[in-house]
Amino acid sequence: MKICVIGTGYVGLVTTVCFAELGHSIVGVDIDEKKIENLRNGISPIYEEDVEEFLKKGMDSGKLSFTTDLASVLNDCDVVFNAVGTPPDEQRRVDLKYVWAVAKQVGENLNRHIVFVNKSTVPVGTASEVEKIIKANLKSNIDFDVCSNPEFLREGSAIKDFMQPDRIVVGVDSDKARQVMADVYKPLTEKGYYLMITDISSAELIKYASNAFLATKISFINEIATLCEKVGADISKVAKGISLDSRIGNKFLNPGPGYGGSCFPKDVDGLISIALDNGVNLRILEAVTDANKSHQLIAIQKIKKHIPNLFGKTIAVWGLAFKAGTDDIRESSSIKLIEKLIQEGAKIQCYDPIALENTKKELTNGNGIKFCEDKMDALSGADALVLMTEWDEFKGVSPEEIKKHTSIVVDTRNIWNKEECEGVSYEGWGR
Length: 431
Fold this sequence. Notes:
With 431 residues, the protein is of the alpha/beta class. Helix content is 44%, strand content 13%.
């Protein structure tokens, strides 16, 4: 099957290379000429395990190509996936301007039947609006279908999530679109992976509801961790006891410095906005977002237990990405922590194995910030160490080694424990 994927960001590129791996003929489209040039040369714009391997494999097989010219390839395709960004606007609502722009361009250039698929995370009702925009810009009476196919890709394991999905959700309103989408995913359903076909509105809402539930789970365990500290309980034991209930499970029960990234903050805010637009107050999710803001700065409180006045103090920060396995610093608690520390007059020595360059671009006013190429360089001469991201290379550093450089450790991921950190002032979370 011939497929076009518009947008070669995180979702779009993973979708593109994975469809090529499944045997489809794929063309990726993006307006960024430099990005397309790099992709043609096998260079990925994102850090994600196996993406470049799949990219090169697809190019070598002839199944995969890239272009900046949508009009030139649109009418050679059976299915068009729209995977452009849907960032939050200034009011934290979902900004759909890129989705509308793509729909308009498709309408202006379409001369045959296609199934147009919203792959981006979009509010309920987006498919209907996309259909109107395409129809309004058609030059003749051409039949087409619009459907929804939300992604469930986790940064750091996106290729695996696409190729071995928990479920594939497709929202359609015609038998023709149903059959086409079944054919698209046949290489996966033949292996036993579950394809859920539903109405479009339900499909659009499933992604938001899924991410909001997971965000709630994270905020919940962080709240319990805070309570554990007050009552003398151990969050690791409490979490294990909770996880043994099959109705709950063991995922997303590790305390940490709040959720971040490109999905959870945006999607929780987006779902709240969708609900408000329909006269519904999602009070639980409003509380989740408020709780997360406090969790993102939990490290500040723990540092100040030992260093009340941070002015002139040097703080080492290990981990800048919002989670291990990615270079994504969007809504990263580390960035928020560094900004707060700088406001209070502290000096920062920070390190991340992957996300350092992205951080330099984000923290353009680098006064008081030293970007280190080695974790021990970041630790040298520091008054305190704050571990923010659970990279494996940090787990391999012994507390004995840390003690040679600093006497204060704030471990927001609980990768060490107080007993093995004898000789330093150790702050975990929830124990």
